[in-house]
């Protein structure tokens, strides 16, 4: 560990850091820190320069920001503490992540190229459950509970993806596709539930009263289209309530 190679790495570490310090206005933590943090970058021990992870909820789309805060709250109500590990991600950092396991060392961690991740548009965030300050990356049981809470809020959960399960990941695109986003479209924040007027057809009034009373649906926006997942959820709630 204390061989020549280690020495070179340390020298490279400081050389990169010093160069940064001399050329840029600084905000850094050099002493005692594992990595040197300079503005948007982290200079790692081996001299590798990587973009800093952004955890700021204010870097998210306003509605995703709300959903993230609601997720934290709902989880807390269910006895699970979570923290946000990443929100907006620059295309530069996306490229660095994409390179991992391909052109740089380590395992492949993402299939998303720059511009292909909802993080690049401020529409996604990652979380991890915590207990007594310890990050519980391996507690899939907790991730599954959190995933369900997130889906109930209208988020898409990465744990439900087929090809590349991403348990910490949540996103909301308001129905837009990646193609739309690449063209510069951004989703419009949905109206607050309370703002949506209850305009149910007369023939459906009894049914509306019933689904609300039974907790099968919140009865909001009665003329909105039902997505398959919404319909399944209603059937599921009905079955849970009344058994087979
Ligand atoms: Zn993510």
Briefly, what is this?
The protein is α+β, with helices and mostly antiparallel strands and 244 residues long. The chain is built from 7 helices and 8 strands; from the N terminus they run H-E-E-E-H-E-H-E-E-H-E-E-H-H-H. A hairpin with a 2-residue loop joins strand 1 and strand 2.
Description:
Helix content is about 35%, strand content about 10%. By secondary structure, it is an alpha+beta fold. The protein folds into 3 domains: about 5-50, no CATH class; about 55-180, Muramoyl-pentapeptide Carboxypeptidase, domain 2 (2-Layer Sandwich); about 195-240, no CATH class. The strands form 2 sheets. Strands 4, 5, 6, 7 and 8 form a 5-stranded antiparallel sheet that branches. A 3-stranded antiparallel sheet has the order 1-2-3. A hairpin with a 2-residue loop joins strand 1 and strand 2 (about 40-45). The protein is elongated, with a radius of gyration of 23 Å. The N and C termini lie far apart (about 65 Å). The model has no long low-confidence stretch (mean pLDDT about 85). The structure holds zinc ion. Zinc ion binds next to strand 5.
Keywords:
single chain; 244 residues; alpha+beta; Muramoyl-pentapeptide Carboxypeptidase, domain 2; 3 domains; five-stranded antiparallel β-sheet; three-stranded antiparallel β-sheet; 8 strands; 36% helix; elongated; binds zinc ion
């Amino acid at each position: 560990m204390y061989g020549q190679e280690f020495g070179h790495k340390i020298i490279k570490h400081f050389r990169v850091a010093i160069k940064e310090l001399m050329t840029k206005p600084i905000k850094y933590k050099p002493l005692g820190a594992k990595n040197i943090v300079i503005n948007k970058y982290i200079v790692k021990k081996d001299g590798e320069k990587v973009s800093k992870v952004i955890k700021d909820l204010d870097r998210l789309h306003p509605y995703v920001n709300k959903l993230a805060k609601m997720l934290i709250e709902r989880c807390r109500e269910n006895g699970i503490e979570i923290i946000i590990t990443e929100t907006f991600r620059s295309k530069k950092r996306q490229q660095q992540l994409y390179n991992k396991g391909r052109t740089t060392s380590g395992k492949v961690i993402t299939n998303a190229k720059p511009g292909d991740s909802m993080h690049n548009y401020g529409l996604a965030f990652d979380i991890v459950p915590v207990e007594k300050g310890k990050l519980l990356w391996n507690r899939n049981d907790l991730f599954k509970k959190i995933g369900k809470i997130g889906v109930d809020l209208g988020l898409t959960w990465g744990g439900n993806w087929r090809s590349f399960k991403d348990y910490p990941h949540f996103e909301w695109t308001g129905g837009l596709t990646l193609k739309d986003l690449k063209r510069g479209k951004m989703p419009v924040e949905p109206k607050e539930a309370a703002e949506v007027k209850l305009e149910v057809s007369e023939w459906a009034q009894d049914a509306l009263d019933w689904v609300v009373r039974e907790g099968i649906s919140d009865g909001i926006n009665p003329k909105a289209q039902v997505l398959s997942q919404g319909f399944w959820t209603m059937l599921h709630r009905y079955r849970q309530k009344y058994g087979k």
